Amino acid sequence: MIIKDNFSKLTNISKLYGCIALFTNEKSEINHLKKYLSSLDYKNLNMLLKNKNKKKGFLSFDLNPNQKIVLISLKKNQKPNETEKSGAKFTDFLNNEGIGNVHVLSDTISMHVKPEAIYEFLHGIRLKSYSFDKYKSKKETKTLKINIISSKKFNKKIYDKFKAIELGVNYTKDLVSEPGNILHPDEYAKRLTQLKKIGLKVSVYNEKQLKKMGCNALVGVGQGSIRGSYLVTLEWKGKKSGSKPLAFVGKGVCFDTGGISLKPARFMEDMTYDMAGSAVVVGLMKNLALRKSKVNAVGVVGLVENMPGGNAQRPGDIVKSYSGKTIEVLNTDAEGRLVLADAITFTEKKFKPNLIVDLATLTGAIVVALGSEYAGLFSNNDNLSKQIHEAGEKVEEKAWRLPLHKNYDKLMNSKNADMQNINYVGGAGSTTAAQFLQRFILNKTPWAHLDIAGMAFSKYAGALNSSGATGYGVRLLNKFIEDNYE
Fold it and tell me: Can you say whether the dihedral through the CA atoms of 428, 430, 433, 438 is positive or negative?
């Protein structure tokens, strides 16, 4: 669905035609609507309300042949994420009713909820309206026109902030939704260079450079593919001071066959979204640049394709990582941690960041543990973990902290190298993967790992997203930055 919105001055409601949305409290009380309706329309609305189930989120009435009134219930002191969800539900309501044009009287929202909530409501509408139909012969042509009517001055600053978040989230969704034959590492790296236009400094390290640097863990994953392997950095300097940046690192396995340790055929097509961690980092960086965030930040993504070619990495191979530590690759399908190992150490050494947050669709075990309600959160720093958890609760992109402990290290120790890339004993699959990654933080930098395997892609629609790519993580990390570092 295509959303077209505009803001206009408050006018006499009797002059409006079509669908008119008005806000009420959870009891659907309409006393505050008297000044917006004629005495006859107000009386008729009261009569109609007596015969309606007021527990519904939306109540609609054909007030007269030219006007349909929709009452939207919002709770007193409603939280921003609840208002956004109300907007998303309103999108579904209008879609189901076949309504393509709606006037929203935003003044009616301020009787019991803060006036700024109209921007949160609109934010929910636009997030929910996303669809990916790029490769369909018949494109989505349905357009929803939203006219926000208000007596108050249009707040461009708030509007633009939400718009930047939406563009970041939707860019993430676009990247994750692309098929593997289109968004391979070569194309992905090329697309990222286009972000220079919005003020990001983009640097691309190709396979030849990575080999020279010693990023053999990352390069090893992609060596079976005809496509190149890359490390791409995106820098945003929103502070004039030379303060240490916040760093975000993403796994970008554009397609994961499992390599020589081949995955089962069933559902392998879903492995196009194994680059979702990198897409979140890219979407976040785009958002920060568009909204001119007052923070210094860097995004680092490792882009590879894991294929079982003639030159593919073999189980039993030993590689030397960028950190200097050696890794025995016992399973080529545990490839994401190899990509992140080099990307994390590179980020720490080059940028000396204030903190590092990495994101990856890393383990199936996290889906078994948490399903599609929470991402797995692992961290070496209690304060960082707390900040991420609280930000996730506020925007309903939730993360649950799971343990790290030195006793898990023995499960990843190798007889032939410094470590191995899987735990052959079994159990604690997500924790041992995170424990592996922690070894590549060399200078005690505060670090958090988000395993988003259960969150990046959904077979069914969520509160703020349609089925498919969810964009999980962009709003979470934006809130994390907003609350703690701006």
Answer: negative
Q: CA torsion angle for 140, 284, 123, 464 (degrees, to 10)?
A: 70
Burial of residue 197, with CB atoms counted within 10 A of its CB: 0-12 exposed, 13-18 middle, 19 or more buried? exposed
The pLDDT mean for the chain works out to 94
**Residue range 67-80: average pLDDT?**
88
Six-digit token pair at 294? 């007052």
Question: What pTM does this model have?
Answer: 0.95
pLDDT-wise least confident of 8-12, 167-171, 358-362: 8-12
| Distance, CA of 106 to CA of 88 (rounded, Å) | 16
Q: Is the pLDDT of residue 436 over 90?
A: yes
Task: For residues 150-160, give the mean pLDDT.
Answer: 92
Helix, strand, or coil (residue 278): helix
Which fold is adopted by the domain 163-484?
Answer: Aminopeptidase (3.40.630)
Cβ neighbors of 413 (< 8 A, separation 6 or more) are 419, 420
Q: Which residues of 50-72 are buried (b: 16+ CB within 10 A; e: fewer)?
A: eeeeeeeebbbbebeeebbbbbb
Alpha carbons 21 and 106: distance in angstroms, whole number: 9
In the numeric block, which tokens belong to residue 444?
A: 């005690």
- Judge whether 382 and 355 are in contact, CB under 8 Å: no
Topology of the domain covering 2-154: Leucine Aminopeptidase, subunit E; domain 1 (3.40.220)
Helix, strand, coil proportions of the chain in percent (round to 5)? Answer: 40, 25, 40
Apex 365 CA angle, 363 and 367, nearest 5: 90
Collapsing DSSP states into helix, strand and coil, what is residue 336? helix
What are the structural domain ranges in the chain? Answer: 2-154, 163-484
Backbone torsion region of residue 355, taken as left when φ is above 0, otherwise alpha when ψ lies between -120 and 50, otherwise beta: beta
Phi, psi of 129 (to 5 degrees): -80, -5
Q: Which residues are catalytic?
A: 263, 337
The percent of residues in the chain predicted with pLDDT above 90, rounded, is: 77
Q: Using an 8 Å Cβ cutoff, are 70 and 21 in contact?
A: yes
Angle formed by the axes of helices 429-438 and 336-351, to 10°? 30
Q: pLDDT for 361-383, tens place per residue? A: 999 999 999 999 999 999 999 99
